[in-house]
Fold this sequence. Notes:
The complex is a heterodimer. Chain A is mainly α. Chain A has 16 helices and no strands.
Amino acid sequence: MTNLQIAARYRPIRWRAIAQSLFSHALIIVTAFAIGLPFFYMVTTSFKTLQEVYTVPIQWLPSNWNLDNYLVAWNGVPMARFGLNSLIYTITITLGEFLMGLLAGYAFGRLHFPKKDVIFFVVLLTLMIPGVITLIPRFLMLRDLGWINTYQGLIVPELSSAFATFLLRQHFASLPDEIFDAAKMDGAGYLRQLFQVALPMSVPITTTLLLLAFVAHWNEYLWPLIVTNTRDMRTLPIGIQTLKNLYSDVPLWHVANAGATMVVLPLVALFLVGQKRFFEGAVQGALKG
Amino acid sequence: MWVYYPFVYSFYLSLTSWNLLSPNINFVGLQNYINLLQNPAFHQVVFNTFLFTLGTVFVRLAISLGLAILLNQNLFLRSLWRLIIFSPHITTSAAMALVWLSMYDPNYGPFSALFSLFGLDFPNVMASTELALPALIVVAIWKGLGFSTIVFLAALQSVSNDLLDAASVDGANAWQSFWAVTFPAISPVTYFLVVTGMIGAFQTFDIVSVMTGGGPVNATNLYVFSLYREAFHYNRMGYASAIAVIFFVVMMIFTFVQTRLANRWVTYS
């Protein structure tokens, strides 16, 4: 036996390390419970009756798991319409913004044209100006166009994304020149090079960008709140706010939480399916920025 | 064009008095700025935003650095914990604000249940001028915790093990090697999180609008919410534009100071 093996055999049990590991596990479990509490409370409350919500001591779980509150929420406000508005708003902007980012990112990353760097810098600068500062003029421009409370008013101003342009530019610039030269020799124009050569090589970053954009626009609150002013044009996050006092002054927490669940559920599903891309998206922005 | 033209237009509007409904816009010079700077309600909004931003960003970063260090160890079910910690980040603020509002219920929520375990009364935080702002800070910390934890975790995983080993051979304890090796390595990411966290916190709107509407008595009125209210409830477009312009100037100063300060503590490899 070598000395190392002997040492391994007679190594004392590492109580200290075990205690440390137990402590870490206890800590992470407590944290996970604390962070998960709002989700737990949201889902369980959405199945409770009003009596079960307003009882002391607290009743953690509903006695009956049925969809009553969801039906009340669905029928109490035009939930289907809110959902449709949210989908139209989110999907159009996500795709439109992606397409614009794709074209612009490709142009900045792979093409040569006069003053390219200056123009790119101007685009990047827009990232520095928080949207809040231009909120009022944007609203006034929509008003002058007669676009308040319309889909085009909601969507068109949101269609460009400096962030998508930036990330795609960095990505396209990093692709090897040889592939594009070969495509050019085969007679592919710029658009074919973009859609048949560059895009298929960029599936991960494309998925990440689309997922992040979908979540961001689904969650948007301030912009739709300003641009829309009738109930049938509201999106989900705004629409569910009236559920709390739907038919009483006492807050209907069970119905409100059912509404909140309906808004958040699609995102949770998306997150569970694409979690790897979400983590990458978070880290990418931070380490490249 | 969609960004720059409105930007200039904001400056112009801030020098006018206009209630949106009347056809004529009156030029009033710097009057809006003078009114703003003399208005105690505006002082309170600035103070609230300052408190909210500092509280949210620094507490959140401290907790998330701790969590990242925890997640960087060998843990049973590590990816599950990571998933749970990150999940608030992808949720809808306006919807989760509603959930938190129901949890803050003074008599029937989980917090009041927890307090009564210890024989304590859970205060009506949403109605209290002292507690409402901290209550919003808790929500903002919860919402953003996962993002900064994941970013810290990625940074920690890139810290060189050789350097850490070298430090422990040299007799450094965990605390010393954290400050000597780990912190310089994660300082660029910390800088990124401080800056983006502050810019995000400055612009908080959703949770204020859903949970408190700025109340009770202005105690949770944050900057962007006050801008929204002046412009779209009271139709004071010139006055609200002045708020926007001051916001822009503050952001410029903030960015300048940040880059200056960063040179002192951020280490780029």
